Amino acid sequence: MCIDSDESRPKVSLIIIALNEEKALPDLICSIKNQSYDHKKTEVIFVDSMSTDRSREIMDEFIRENDFWRVIGRKNPKVIQAGGWNTALDCADGDIIIRLDAHAYLPEDFVERNVKCIEEGHEICGGKVKNQIANESAWSAIINVAENSMFGGSVAAFRHKDTVGYVPTLAFAAYKREVFETVGRFNENLLRTEDNEMHYRMRQAGYRLFYNPEILSFRETRPTLRKLLHQKYMNGYWVGLTISVCPGCLSIYHLVPLGFVLAGAITGLLMCIGIWQLSALLWGAYLLVTVIMSLFAVFGERRFNVYYFLLPILFLLLHVGYGIGTLTGIIRIPGWKKSLKDCHN
Q: CB within 10 Å: which end of the chain, N or C, has fewer?
Protein backbone atom coordinates (compact mmCIF):
# COMPACT_ATOMS: atom_id res chain seq x y z
CA MET A 1 0.00 0.00 0.00
CA CYS A 2 1.38 3.41 -0.96
CA ILE A 3 0.05 6.96 -0.72
CA ASP A 4 0.38 9.49 -3.54
CA SER A 5 3.79 11.04 -3.99
CA ASP A 6 4.57 14.31 -2.24
CA GLU A 7 7.84 15.78 -3.52
CA SER A 8 8.26 17.92 -0.40
CA ARG A 9 8.63 14.91 1.87
CA PRO A 10 12.05 13.36 2.65
CA LYS A 11 13.54 10.31 1.02
CA VAL A 12 13.98 7.30 3.29
CA SER A 13 16.61 4.55 3.25
CA LEU A 14 15.66 1.24 4.87
CA ILE A 15 18.72 -0.86 5.75
CA ILE A 16 18.52 -4.61 6.32
CA ILE A 17 21.54 -6.76 7.23
CA ALA A 18 21.09 -10.53 6.92
CA LEU A 19 23.11 -13.68 7.50
CA ASN A 20 21.30 -16.93 6.66
CA GLU A 21 17.84 -15.45 7.20
CA GLU A 22 15.86 -17.22 4.47
CA LYS A 23 13.03 -17.97 6.93
CA ALA A 24 12.71 -14.44 8.29
CA LEU A 25 13.23 -12.30 5.18
CA PRO A 26 9.93 -13.06 3.37
CA ASP A 27 7.84 -11.69 6.27
CA LEU A 28 10.00 -8.60 6.60
CA ILE A 29 9.86 -7.95 2.85
CA CYS A 30 6.09 -8.37 2.90
CA SER A 31 5.79 -5.76 5.66
CA ILE A 32 8.07 -3.41 3.70
CA LYS A 33 5.89 -3.78 0.59
CA ASN A 34 2.84 -2.83 2.70
CA GLN A 35 4.31 0.41 4.04
CA SER A 36 1.98 3.37 3.56
CA TYR A 37 4.83 5.83 3.08
CA ASP A 38 5.44 6.75 -0.57
CA HIS A 39 7.40 3.92 -2.20
CA LYS A 40 8.81 6.39 -4.73
CA LYS A 41 10.48 8.19 -1.81
CA THR A 42 11.83 4.97 -0.27
CA GLU A 43 14.97 2.99 -1.02
CA VAL A 44 15.69 -0.44 0.41
CA ILE A 45 19.29 -1.54 0.94
CA PHE A 46 20.01 -5.22 1.56
CA VAL A 47 23.43 -6.26 2.85
CA ASP A 48 24.15 -9.97 2.71
CA SER A 49 26.76 -11.10 5.24
CA MET A 50 27.94 -14.01 3.08
CA SER A 51 24.86 -16.20 3.61
CA THR A 52 25.01 -19.86 2.64
CA ASP A 53 21.23 -20.33 2.40
CA ARG A 54 18.67 -18.67 0.07
CA SER A 55 18.90 -15.23 1.70
CA ARG A 56 20.65 -13.58 -1.23
CA GLU A 57 18.26 -15.20 -3.70
CA ILE A 58 15.27 -13.81 -1.78
CA MET A 59 16.86 -10.37 -1.78
CA ASP A 60 17.56 -10.54 -5.52
CA GLU A 61 13.94 -11.50 -6.26
CA PHE A 62 12.75 -8.35 -4.50
CA ILE A 63 15.43 -6.24 -6.19
CA ARG A 64 14.17 -7.36 -9.62
CA GLU A 65 10.48 -6.73 -8.94
CA ASN A 66 9.42 -3.77 -6.81
CA ASP A 67 7.87 -0.32 -7.05
CA PHE A 68 10.32 1.53 -4.80
CA TRP A 69 12.59 4.46 -5.63
CA ARG A 70 15.61 2.16 -5.43
CA VAL A 71 16.34 -1.34 -4.14
CA ILE A 72 19.95 -2.50 -4.08
CA GLY A 73 21.99 -5.35 -2.68
CA ARG A 74 25.50 -5.32 -1.25
CA LYS A 75 27.86 -7.93 0.18
CA ASN A 76 29.43 -7.80 3.63
CA PRO A 77 32.59 -9.93 3.50
CA LYS A 78 33.40 -8.94 7.10
CA VAL A 79 30.20 -10.80 8.16
CA ILE A 80 29.82 -8.85 11.43
CA GLN A 81 26.83 -6.53 11.91
CA ALA A 82 28.83 -3.32 12.23
CA GLY A 83 30.59 -4.05 8.93
CA GLY A 84 27.21 -4.53 7.28
CA TRP A 85 25.80 -1.26 8.62
CA ASN A 86 28.86 0.64 7.41
CA THR A 87 28.58 -0.95 3.96
CA ALA A 88 24.95 0.18 3.74
CA LEU A 89 25.65 3.69 5.07
CA ASP A 90 28.27 4.18 2.35
CA CYS A 91 25.64 3.81 -0.37
CA ALA A 92 22.50 5.16 1.34
CA ASP A 93 21.02 8.19 -0.43
CA GLY A 94 18.02 8.88 1.84
CA ASP A 95 17.48 11.99 3.94
CA ILE A 96 16.37 9.64 6.72
CA ILE A 97 18.03 6.31 7.48
CA ILE A 98 16.18 3.51 9.27
CA ARG A 99 17.97 0.37 10.48
CA LEU A 100 16.08 -2.91 10.64
CA ASP A 101 16.83 -6.45 11.77
CA ALA A 102 16.11 -9.30 9.39
CA HIS A 103 13.87 -10.68 12.16
CA ALA A 104 11.74 -7.52 12.24
CA TYR A 105 8.12 -7.11 11.20
CA LEU A 106 6.63 -3.65 10.56
CA PRO A 107 3.06 -2.35 10.81
CA GLU A 108 2.12 -0.52 7.62
CA ASP A 109 2.47 2.93 9.26
CA PHE A 110 5.96 2.30 10.69
CA VAL A 111 7.93 4.38 8.17
CA GLU A 112 5.23 7.06 8.03
CA ARG A 113 5.26 7.56 11.80
CA ASN A 114 9.07 7.76 11.89
CA VAL A 115 9.13 10.32 9.08
CA LYS A 116 6.53 12.47 10.82
CA CYS A 117 8.61 12.35 13.97
CA ILE A 118 11.67 13.59 12.09
CA GLU A 119 9.57 16.23 10.31
CA GLU A 120 8.50 17.51 13.74
CA GLY A 121 12.10 18.44 14.46
CA HIS A 122 13.69 15.35 16.02
CA GLU A 123 17.01 14.19 14.62
CA ILE A 124 16.78 10.63 15.96
CA CYS A 125 13.58 8.82 16.81
CA GLY A 126 12.13 5.38 17.38
CA GLY A 127 9.38 3.49 19.11
CA LYS A 128 8.37 0.41 21.01
CA VAL A 129 9.72 -2.97 19.89
CA LYS A 130 7.76 -6.01 21.00
CA ASN A 131 8.88 -9.61 20.71
CA GLN A 132 6.81 -12.26 18.98
CA ILE A 133 7.09 -15.92 18.00
CA ALA A 134 6.70 -16.94 14.36
CA ASN A 135 5.36 -20.46 14.90
CA GLU A 136 4.03 -20.41 18.43
CA SER A 137 3.78 -23.51 20.57
CA ALA A 138 3.03 -23.87 24.28
CA TRP A 139 6.76 -23.92 25.04
CA SER A 140 7.81 -21.12 22.68
CA ALA A 141 5.01 -18.98 24.15
CA ILE A 142 6.65 -19.01 27.57
CA ILE A 143 9.99 -18.09 26.00
CA ASN A 144 8.30 -15.09 24.39
CA VAL A 145 6.67 -14.09 27.70
CA ALA A 146 10.09 -14.18 29.36
CA GLU A 147 11.71 -12.15 26.59
CA ASN A 148 8.97 -9.50 26.71
CA SER A 149 9.39 -9.20 30.47
CA MET A 150 11.62 -6.51 31.97
CA PHE A 151 13.02 -9.20 34.27
CA GLY A 152 13.98 -11.66 31.54
CA GLY A 153 14.41 -9.49 28.46
CA SER A 154 15.49 -5.90 28.91
CA VAL A 155 14.72 -2.80 30.97
CA ALA A 156 15.36 -0.59 27.93
CA ALA A 157 12.69 2.06 27.51
CA PHE A 158 11.96 1.03 23.92
CA ARG A 159 10.78 -2.34 25.21
CA HIS A 160 8.33 -1.18 27.88
CA LYS A 161 7.85 2.58 28.17
CA ASP A 162 4.36 3.88 27.34
CA THR A 163 5.04 7.62 27.34
CA VAL A 164 6.95 9.82 24.91
CA GLY A 165 10.34 11.22 25.90
CA TYR A 166 14.07 11.04 25.43
CA VAL A 167 15.89 7.76 26.05
CA PRO A 168 19.52 6.50 26.05
CA THR A 169 19.08 3.99 23.23
CA LEU A 170 16.62 2.77 20.61
CA ALA A 171 16.07 -0.18 18.29
CA PHE A 172 14.95 0.08 14.65
CA ALA A 173 15.55 3.81 14.92
CA ALA A 174 15.31 6.55 12.29
CA TYR A 175 18.19 9.00 11.90
CA LYS A 176 18.61 12.17 9.92
CA ARG A 177 21.43 11.58 7.46
CA GLU A 178 23.63 14.29 8.94
CA VAL A 179 23.78 12.45 12.27
CA PHE A 180 26.08 9.81 10.77
CA GLU A 181 27.98 12.50 8.87
CA THR A 182 28.75 14.05 12.27
CA VAL A 183 29.52 11.02 14.47
CA GLY A 184 31.01 8.67 11.85
CA ARG A 185 30.49 4.97 11.26
CA PHE A 186 29.93 1.96 13.51
CA ASN A 187 32.81 0.48 15.51
CA GLU A 188 33.68 -2.75 13.73
CA ASN A 189 35.59 -4.06 16.76
CA LEU A 190 32.26 -4.63 18.56
CA LEU A 191 30.04 -7.52 17.53
CA ARG A 192 27.05 -7.14 19.87
CA THR A 193 27.33 -3.70 21.45
CA GLU A 194 27.89 -1.56 18.37
CA ASP A 195 24.48 0.07 18.90
CA ASN A 196 25.30 1.04 22.49
CA GLU A 197 28.62 2.55 21.43
CA MET A 198 27.09 4.42 18.48
CA HIS A 199 24.27 5.88 20.56
CA TYR A 200 26.78 6.88 23.23
CA ARG A 201 28.75 8.84 20.62
CA MET A 202 25.54 10.42 19.37
CA ARG A 203 24.64 11.56 22.89
CA GLN A 204 28.17 12.87 23.40
CA ALA A 205 27.80 14.86 20.17
CA GLY A 206 24.68 16.53 21.58
CA TYR A 207 21.98 14.51 19.84
CA ARG A 208 18.93 13.29 21.76
CA LEU A 209 17.07 10.07 21.03
CA PHE A 210 13.31 10.67 20.98
CA TYR A 211 10.97 7.81 21.85
CA ASN A 212 7.31 7.53 20.85
CA PRO A 213 5.53 4.27 21.78
CA GLU A 214 3.05 4.78 18.94
CA ILE A 215 5.88 3.90 16.52
CA LEU A 216 5.45 0.16 16.92
CA SER A 217 7.45 -2.70 15.43
CA PHE A 218 8.03 -6.36 16.20
CA ARG A 219 11.08 -8.58 16.55
CA GLU A 220 11.15 -12.37 16.49
CA THR A 221 12.13 -14.11 19.73
CA ARG A 222 14.64 -16.95 19.54
CA PRO A 223 12.31 -19.97 19.22
CA THR A 224 14.20 -22.44 21.45
CA LEU A 225 15.72 -22.25 24.91
CA ARG A 226 19.14 -23.22 23.56
CA LYS A 227 19.16 -20.35 21.05
CA LEU A 228 17.84 -17.87 23.62
CA LEU A 229 20.48 -18.88 26.17
CA HIS A 230 23.19 -18.56 23.53
CA GLN A 231 21.91 -15.08 22.67
CA LYS A 232 21.96 -14.02 26.34
CA TYR A 233 25.43 -15.47 26.88
CA MET A 234 26.85 -13.67 23.84
CA ASN A 235 25.13 -10.40 24.80
CA GLY A 236 26.71 -10.66 28.24
CA TYR A 237 30.06 -11.63 26.74
CA TRP A 238 30.23 -8.50 24.61
CA VAL A 239 29.11 -6.35 27.52
CA GLY A 240 32.14 -7.71 29.39
CA LEU A 241 34.51 -6.85 26.54
CA THR A 242 32.95 -3.42 25.97
CA ILE A 243 33.66 -2.39 29.56
CA SER A 244 37.31 -2.04 28.54
CA VAL A 245 36.73 0.29 25.59
CA CYS A 246 33.52 2.22 26.31
CA PRO A 247 32.19 1.90 29.87
CA GLY A 248 29.97 4.91 29.26
CA CYS A 249 28.10 2.88 26.62
CA LEU A 250 26.65 0.65 29.32
CA SER A 251 24.24 1.15 32.20
CA ILE A 252 24.27 -0.46 35.64
CA TYR A 253 21.51 -2.78 34.45
CA HIS A 254 23.93 -4.45 32.04
CA LEU A 255 26.03 -5.56 35.04
CA VAL A 256 23.26 -6.81 37.36
CA PRO A 257 23.42 -10.44 36.08
CA LEU A 258 27.19 -10.42 36.65
CA GLY A 259 26.65 -9.17 40.20
CA PHE A 260 24.12 -11.93 40.79
CA VAL A 261 26.47 -14.65 39.52
CA LEU A 262 29.36 -13.35 41.62
CA ALA A 263 27.16 -13.07 44.70
CA GLY A 264 25.93 -16.63 44.16
CA ALA A 265 29.49 -17.92 43.84
CA ILE A 266 30.78 -16.04 46.90
CA THR A 267 27.87 -16.98 49.18
CA GLY A 268 28.13 -20.56 47.94
CA LEU A 269 31.78 -20.70 49.01
CA LEU A 270 30.90 -19.16 52.38
CA MET A 271 28.22 -21.81 52.85
CA CYS A 272 30.91 -24.47 52.43
CA ILE A 273 32.63 -23.16 55.56
CA GLY A 274 29.44 -22.96 57.56
CA ILE A 275 28.29 -19.40 56.82
CA TRP A 276 24.95 -20.21 55.20
CA GLN A 277 22.94 -17.14 56.20
CA LEU A 278 24.08 -14.91 53.30
CA SER A 279 23.30 -17.63 50.76
CA ALA A 280 19.86 -18.15 52.28
CA LEU A 281 19.23 -14.39 52.15
CA LEU A 282 20.36 -14.13 48.53
CA TRP A 283 18.33 -17.06 47.22
CA GLY A 284 15.32 -16.25 49.35
CA ALA A 285 15.24 -12.69 48.02
CA TYR A 286 15.82 -13.88 44.46
CA LEU A 287 13.02 -16.45 44.72
CA LEU A 288 10.59 -13.84 46.04
CA VAL A 289 11.44 -11.32 43.31
CA THR A 290 11.36 -13.98 40.60
CA VAL A 291 7.91 -15.21 41.62
CA ILE A 292 6.57 -11.64 41.71
CA MET A 293 8.07 -10.82 38.31
CA SER A 294 6.73 -14.09 36.89
CA LEU A 295 3.24 -13.08 37.98
CA PHE A 296 3.68 -9.68 36.35
CA ALA A 297 4.95 -11.34 33.17
CA VAL A 298 1.86 -13.53 32.75
CA PHE A 299 -0.62 -10.89 33.91
CA GLY A 300 -3.05 -10.18 31.13
CA GLU A 301 -2.24 -13.32 29.13
CA ARG A 302 -5.46 -14.51 27.53
CA ARG A 303 -5.00 -18.22 28.01
CA PHE A 304 -3.54 -20.57 30.56
CA ASN A 305 -0.26 -22.26 29.76
CA VAL A 306 1.07 -24.91 32.11
CA TYR A 307 4.63 -23.90 31.16
CA TYR A 308 4.10 -20.57 32.94
CA PHE A 309 4.98 -22.40 36.16
CA LEU A 310 8.50 -22.78 34.75
CA LEU A 311 9.05 -19.03 34.36
CA PRO A 312 11.12 -18.69 37.59
CA ILE A 313 13.50 -21.40 36.36
CA LEU A 314 13.67 -19.81 32.91
CA PHE A 315 14.47 -16.42 34.41
CA LEU A 316 17.24 -17.99 36.49
CA LEU A 317 18.80 -19.64 33.44
CA LEU A 318 18.71 -16.39 31.45
CA HIS A 319 20.28 -14.37 34.27
CA VAL A 320 23.01 -16.91 34.95
CA GLY A 321 23.78 -17.29 31.23
CA TYR A 322 24.08 -13.52 30.76
CA GLY A 323 26.15 -13.11 33.93
CA ILE A 324 28.57 -15.91 33.04
CA GLY A 325 28.91 -14.38 29.57
CA THR A 326 29.85 -11.00 31.09
CA LEU A 327 32.36 -12.63 33.45
CA THR A 328 33.91 -14.55 30.54
CA GLY A 329 34.16 -11.35 28.50
CA ILE A 330 35.93 -9.51 31.33
CA ILE A 331 38.39 -12.37 31.77
CA ARG A 332 39.19 -12.33 28.06
CA ILE A 333 39.72 -8.55 27.81
CA PRO A 334 43.56 -8.72 27.77
CA GLY A 335 43.66 -11.28 24.94
CA TRP A 336 40.94 -9.46 22.99
CA LYS A 337 42.71 -6.10 23.20
CA LYS A 338 45.98 -7.72 22.19
CA SER A 339 44.32 -9.27 19.14
CA LEU A 340 42.89 -5.86 18.18
CA LYS A 341 46.32 -4.31 18.51
CA ASP A 342 47.88 -7.03 16.37
CA CYS A 343 45.21 -6.55 13.69
CA HIS A 344 45.86 -2.82 13.48
CA ASN A 345 49.64 -3.19 13.34
A: C
